[in-house]
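Crash report, auto-generated. Payload:
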Amino acid sequence: MAPELLLDSNIRLWVVLPIVFITFLVGVIRHYVSILLQSDKKLTLEQVSDSQVLIRSRILRENGKYIPKQSFLMRKFYFNNQEDGFLKNTKRKVVPPSPMTDPSMLTDMMKGNVTNVLPMILIGGWINWTFSGFVTTKVPFPLTLRFKPMLQQGIELLSLDASWVSSASWYFLNVFGLRSMYSLILGQDNGADQSRIMQEQMSGAAMAMPADTNKAFKAEWEALELTDHQWALEGVEEELMSRELDLDGMFSKELPTGIF
Amino acid sequence: GFDNWNVLIIVFTEMRDKLRKWREDNHRNSEQIVDVGEELINEHASKLGDDIWIIYEQVMIAALDCSRDDLAWTCLQELKRQFPGSQRVKRLAGMRLEALEKYEDASKQYDSILQDDPTNTAARKRKISILKAQGKSAEAIRELNEYLEQFVGDQEAWHELSELYINEHDYGKAAFCLEELMMTNPHNHLYCEQYAEVKYTQGGLENLELSRKYFAQALKLNNRNMRALFGLYMSASHIAACPKVNATVKKANVRYAAWATNQINRAYQVSHAMCCVLLKQ
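Recovered output after restart:
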């Protein structure tokens, strides 16, 4: 059983709280800086056009039942025809947005690094240098001895429990922990959200837009092939005439002139 | 004293809220907008804050509708001063040139917007409106088709194209446009009704059947659409009167027409009752 350490309450006042404030303020500043440095994402004409085509194909699948069968088949033929169907035959140039070929991606990446990684390293180092030589807080769960050199930077005590951590670890804990605070104060899509940005960087390589278009076309083609026409108006007269028309409020004064 | 001041504040907020409502509902009551907007701009500009810019835009377009070039020019100058180099303001400048019938200059204005931003749909649509204003329907139709090839989801454009085709009596193509609109707005009874009318105009047994079905659908979506009710009656009786139909089809259509007549009579009774009530008041 490790003896309980009692920390000077000054540590709480002058170390724990300032680190929280510093992390939070730096996060807010990062958010506003990222807004200033944001470059406009300009979509090309082709991308806009393609996204609308995909929407139209999807609408055809979902609401094709409201138009006559012949019209539906005509459009399905236009999209899926073996020889010259749009979805079958249109191939877009697939250029994966690697940093080398796409200069705007490069500057975006650089900006991302500058606003996020650099401050974190700088401030982490500064805190480590300023608030060194003492333990700051204790994590509520037991840790193995292997964590000691990482979490207890600057404290050379062999017998000290690994749960006691230095201020640098408290700083990193804050960086990730204040994420929900940022969403509360800055709104969902904020530039101070460190972990979200790192997640994006990892999955960003996998979500290349141009390759998506060809795959999206193929997926639409398959889905449309499977769609059949079930005319929604098959029994519309019988449905309509099953009851009297509801003429309530037809000639009221407030009604806008939308009848005719 | 305080009473006068309070009344002014109430009047001011009412006017501003009215303008906002008209803006959000896309009303085109230009004379009213000009009246309210002009007073708001002249008397209460300081109280409006940042709202004033969008009000300038709204009032300017209304002023162009009412041939108030003086007011439109004032609004445009204010907007140009606040947002130099803005494409949205450039479009407004182009619209003013259109209102003055300086179509060449307006077209050049829109071309300059498109040079900077080829995806700007507003400028392309204004160019097509110029062709329409000049009466060049065939060219307008051609340009609009090209536009729609790129921006296949623009519903406003599909509707405009259907109107152009109807004016040129090309009902087959108008029907195609209306089909697009029916798919994207399946619950809009007006598109069903317009489609039914186009089919009715095309004529022929198959088209009449389709027309009857779509009049019924429009009525199903909105029980109070009188035009669709009359359309249902006419298409059903037309089919029933056709010599080529077989007995079952004829019988069914006679039944439909009878039902429609019934409903029309009910509607007249309701309106008659309403008139009595109104006259008594």
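Post-recovery validation: The two ends of chain A are 87 Å apart (CA to CA).
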